[in-house]
Amino acid sequence: MTQMERVEALRPRNFGASYDWDELVQEDRVHHLLYTDAAIFDAEMRHIFGGTWVYLAHESQIPNVDDYVTAKLGLRPLIMTRDSDGIIRALYNRCTHRGTTLCRFEKGNKRSFQCPYHGWNFLNNGKLRGVPWAEGYGENLTRDPKFNLAQVPRVESYRGFIFGTLNASAPPIGEHLGPIRKPIDEWLDRNPGGKVVVCEANRIKYKGNWKLAYDNSGDGYHVLYSHRSLLETENRFVDENTEKGMSYYRTAPDEQPMYMQYMGNGHHFKDKRPNLQPRNGGLWAIESLHPGMEHVEQKLRRQFGDRADALLDLAGSEPVNINVFPNLSLLGNHIQVFQPVSFEETDTIWYGTRIEDVDGTIGADALNDINTLRMRTQEGFPNFGEVDDVTNFEQIQRGLRCQEDEWIYMNRGLGIPGRIHTLEDGTIKAPATDEMFMREYIKEWKRLMKAEPQLTIRREP
Ligand code: FES
Ligand SMILES: [Fe+2]
Q1: Domain 54-158 in CATH: superfamily?
Q2: Residue 10: its pLDDT value, please?
């Protein structure tokens, strides 16, 4: 048994003995330790960000052979490469010599990576290619696989979204995603060729636990209160019969046709599309305006007449929140990634997406206009709404320092006959403001924290 195996063998027992998971996670409430305890955070980096599938990157970020982008699996820095044979790999961004991060850039195209410390050189499949002044070693290092970079043993894609896990016994990614695949498919299929290309990102850091973002990702209860100024801004310059942005939360949101659905394995889905007018242009009609967008809209209308509404819908932010546990959210035109940093610090990254004119029916000029508008939608919620949310997250983290006041409640919708429905496929539906999805995903969190996953890495032979 190796030292690491001995530590691992002890860790779950010692760790589990300190915590009563069933007391910490109850039907209607959770304990503040889930958000404030550094040891629980450390364990999450193994049990959650290691023990289950985690979103790492999008295939469109590494479209060509030798492309790479850096990413993270929990706290583990990674280099996502499309190696010289076209294979997508998640290499540990950790030199096998003395452990420094090998690649210090965000993205690029490289056949090999040279360590900035002593110059060891690794191919983009992880193999050690050579070391400076090799005669100073008593063996040929490139012949021993232990000097090849470690890599995430299981890397699988679902329609361009790349996930990885260290857990050899996790089910295939498609099975793990299960019913949440349907809204992902729909989010993609409304675009030409059923795909998006990931663009640059807004990055927002907050001083709070990563779960605060996931708790909020389907929260329909806060919108009217936390995002009041955004709603007012969006609706300021339109007539009273037009409702922009998230206006459907303004009156009786639980009586609206939108709903919340828990999809299993921690994933959940807020579907606000039933609130749209069912016509071409119905999606664009609720898109909030930012200065200058109207000129692009008018140009498309002049150019395409009746067809313009359908094209403008390609630029509109789809009113869904598709949340894939533990770190991925698809909303509007954006891909949001939650990146834990410590028990009280998180990075959120909002990638814009553009579409391609796959079958040549849009034309380069109009495509450029549509993608321009899609980028401008990035100025809406990610800039004016996310700041409201992260303020709440930071204020929660601060409030939780009142350690003796132990509980956080997520009981909205609980115990009301006929309010929550379990469907035939096992998914659960509730009105838009229910906290049902929090209660359900945190049960999955508890299951993973109680489990003892066998985490593995692999190296090229
Ligand atoms: S730490 Fe990378 S070459 Fe020494
Ligand atoms: Fe919000």
Answers
A1: Rieske [2Fe-2S] iron-sulphur domain (2.102.10.10)
A2: 67
